Description:
globular; D-Maltodextrin-Binding Protein, domain 2; disordered N terminus; 8 strands; 2 domains; about 325 residues
Amino acid sequence: MFWFFVMGCVEQEQNSSVQHSEDAQAVIPSAVPQDSEGVPIRIGWQVTWATQGQLAVILKNSEILSDLGFVPEFVGFEYGGPLNEGALSGAVDVLFTADQPAIALCNRDKSWGIIGRLMYNRVGTFVPQSSSVTDLSELKGKSVAIPFGAAAHRETLDAIREAGLDPVRDIVSINMGVKEISAMATAGRWDSIHAASAWDPVFADLESSKLVRTIAQGKVTSVVVMDDDFVHKYPGSDQKFMDGLSLAYQQYKADPKKANEAFKQESKLGFSLEALDLAASVEPNLKKEEQISVKLSALDLDNIQKAADFMYEVKILKEKASTDAMIRKSAQ
């Protein structure tokens, strides 16, 4: 199961509200009986992952889904790996995740498909504030701490290539988990490490706290994945669910502070409101002048395929995968 573990989107300390894969069958709520009013749906979300978290909490605390005919149950997971395992065990019907965990799940079990765009989330490469490095090209011959196998790994290597460096020959890549990177940067104990990469909300927290200086930033497409069997049983449920996500975005956009505070209370995270706003700054659906859209653009589709290609390159996938078959009609 190593390939699932390394695909996790969020690696925060364990939270008591989080369900873990080894006891998923015992503790995750079953679907509501079919004779209940409405369509029972179990929603897997990641309790420590910002922006996604605000949307999930809005859906959880509002009548949005029930007004659309659903009877929702929300199932919290620590990060993408256990969430995928929960999906494979039949513990959830739909889930919120990043591109690489989505690809891993859909490649493993073809009955899961991407039904729409969840959000964009940031990943970044950064250095200590005291560092003399101002550009990626200045990392030649230096050590960079990277969470191997995660989207931050992919984006960091791409940025290094674009800076004219060979990521294999010109830098020393050190495999380090995002929790370790956060602790290192917070304590200021970089030792022989010259730069590091992480994703939000850890990246936003370090950046907003002025603990690091960003030298490169990338954007990852995160998605909503649903079980085809669920859609076949309840036709149109995929589009209705995405309609609900659009309505959640409307509430989030109308009052970001309220959404942030509700997410902080639910997740019990210590991130500042400033960090949560910074994490959400890359999402166009939260900008007043932008129309809300949960569809995947042509660029999104290209980037998801690039993610699959990267996963094959670093041997997370045993064979090359075409993501076209993973994308469902409701997503476009």
